Amino acid sequence: MPKLIRLDQSGHTMLAEWSADDQSAFERAAIAFREQLEQGYFGLVSLADGRAEQVTELPFDAPMVILRRPIAGG
Fold first, then answer.
1. What is the pLDDT of residues 52-72, one digit of tens each?
2. CA-CA distances (angstroms) from residue 26 to 1, 11, 60?
3. What number of other Cβ atoms are within 10 A of residue 2's Cβ?
4. What is the pLDDT of residues 12-22, one digit of tens each?
5. SS3 labels along the chain
6. How many CB atoms lie within 10 A of CB 13?
7. CA 62, 26, 19 angle in degrees (round to 5)?
């Protein structure tokens, strides 16, 4: 079951789960995803080769989407 997870001070918080047969759960997850992007989080998915890719739309078929804040510093 795909999950939407936000990295935060507690370690992580699961914001949503959905399945292929529950379109309404995916729509709620997509709303939560967009709200987090508006608050400054980045959405990331892991690729098969071990790299991560930033996403701006919630992918329906990703096993896990991680939301995190930008890394500070410079």
1. 999 999 999 999 999 999 886
2. 11, 24, 7
3. 20
4. 999 999 998 99
5. CCEEEEEECCEEEEEEECCCCCHHHHHHHHHHHHHHHHCCCEEEEECCCCCEEEECCCCCCCCEEEEECCCCCC
6. 12
7. 65
